[in-house]
Amino acid sequence: MSKVPYKIYLTEDEIPENYYNIRADMLNKPDPLLNPATKQAITKEELEAVFCSELVDQELDNTNRYIPIPEEIREIYKMYRPSPVVRAYNLEKKLNTPAKIYYKFEGNNTSGSHKLNSAIAQIYYAKKQGLKKVTTETGAGQWGTALAIACSLFDMDLEVFMVKSSYEQKPFRKNIIKVFGGEVIPSPSDTTEVGRKILAENPNTSGSLGCAISEAVEVASMDPNSRYVLGSVLNQVVLHQSIIGLESKIALEKYGEYPDIVIGCAGGGSNLGGLIAPFISDNIKGTRDSKIIAVEPASCPSLTRGKFVYDYCDTGKITPLAKMYTLGSGFIPAANHSGGLRYHGMSPIISKLYHDGYMDAVSYAQSKVFEAAIMFAKTETILPAPESAHAIRAAIDEALKCKETGEEKTILFGLTGTGYFDMLAYESYLEGTMEDYIPSDEDLKLDLVGEL
């Protein structure tokens, strides 16, 4: 077997032809979404009032293992895919660990992240349906940027509600969205009924993804030629992101490698779900036994400190309810620098897998995360997004455990994006002004919907 190169590249012909639907292999399926008014399982017709028809079919599909990727989508993917799997030789040397560390790099596109994988798919289906406009929310701005790129490719109008704290912390993100023709509004705003209500209750709020979702859904629901699109959490988005894990598995197999540990940052759960999908499938089938680790911020610990109950997906309580690990739809996380991980809940798929014991979860304070990010930047020369740095932190810790035990484990983590628009966050860490806010138990005593 030849030495593994720094970067393992697939050819364009090796881009997967199908998305992988992990739900088809799950022994216990995620619980159904519920209509917020009736609390009954939501129907296809009801979901089509919010989402594109094809995406609704994907959202509700628990049986088809593979969903064909339309050729038009694959052709656009070729502009930035396949993305490389990289052997982190320099990081291994720095840590003096016997572990082999790999990362799947998804930041090699203008959006700077994995988000473009689902944005292209969702806008393709919206255009195919004849829609003229989509609305969405964005936290760190990566999803908004990715969606603006996709809308530009398909000549679609876009309105983005950006979490206010990120809007202020990451001004260049909103400018990139505008470059590609998207409209950006800080959330909560006075342009929607739900935004005005949230501001009336808390005028100084820094906002949250739940708030921004409420506003985006409200705007979309008032226009028959518009639909709402979401960048994480939903089954359909995890499905689209499965291309990350599928490419990773193919690349590693070329050199006879298979991960003992797979690590991903966890906000809404889509990049994590996409990365782990083919590996956790092997765990479910009993052919492998990889350790799967979800990594989240200590300031927004939905898996590690949340409850597994039905809850609203948004703060305004107008979206369907999902059975998920949640801190409560009213939870407003601290304005930390990992805006993409500031969501109160977790993907129903990830939640069910975690609840059934197929993965572990850890949380870190942001100063520990940035410490790992800078070590990675110095050794691997890529400045990681704060979100991705959570996975780096866990990968370093797992590699150090191998140093103690002498085990030569293979570690794979997802480097979901770059941090070049996050320099205020790095400045805060380097100047010693970064605060590690961790909510108290009292902070997390929120009104949850509970069992239904």
Automatic annotation (TrEMBL):
<feature type="domain" description="Tryptophan synthase beta chain-like PALP">
    <location>
        <begin position="79"/>
        <end position="417"/>
    </location>
</feature>
<keyword id="KW-0028">Amino-acid biosynthesis</keyword>
<keyword id="KW-0456">Lyase</keyword>
<comment type="pathway">
    <text>Amino-acid biosynthesis; L-tryptophan biosynthesis; L-tryptophan from chorismate: step 5/5.</text>
</comment>
<dbReference type="GO" id="GO:0004834">
    <property type="term" value="F:tryptophan synthase activity"/>
</dbReference>
<keyword id="KW-0057">Aromatic amino acid biosynthesis</keyword>
<dbReference type="GO" id="GO:0005737">
    <property type="term" value="C:cytoplasm"/>
</dbReference>
<comment type="subunit">
    <text>Tetramer of two alpha and two beta chains.</text>
</comment>
<dbReference type="InterPro" id="IPR006316">
    <property type="entry name" value="Trp_synth_b-like"/>
</dbReference>
<protein>
    <recommendedName>
        <fullName>Tryptophan synthase beta chain</fullName>
        <ecNumber>4.2.1.20</ecNumber>
    </recommendedName>
</protein>
<comment type="similarity">
    <text>Belongs to the TrpB family.</text>
</comment>
<dbReference type="GO" id="GO:0030170">
    <property type="term" value="F:pyridoxal phosphate binding"/>
</dbReference>
<keyword id="KW-0663">Pyridoxal phosphate</keyword>
<comment type="function">
    <text>The beta subunit is responsible for the synthesis of L-tryptophan from indole and L-serine.</text>
</comment>
<dbReference type="InterPro" id="IPR001926">
    <property type="entry name" value="TrpB-like_PALP"/>
</dbReference>
<keyword id="KW-0822">Tryptophan biosynthesis</keyword>
<dbReference type="InterPro" id="IPR036052">
    <property type="entry name" value="TrpB-like_PALP_sf"/>
</dbReference>
<feature type="modified residue" description="N6-(pyridoxal phosphate)lysine">
    <location>
        <position position="115"/>
    </location>
</feature>
<dbReference type="Pfam" id="PF00291">
    <property type="entry name" value="PALP"/>
</dbReference>
<dbReference type="GO" id="GO:0052684">
    <property type="term" value="F:L-serine hydro-lyase (adding indole, L-tryptophan-forming) activity"/>
</dbReference>
<dbReference type="InterPro" id="IPR023026">
    <property type="entry name" value="Trp_synth_beta/beta-like"/>
</dbReference>
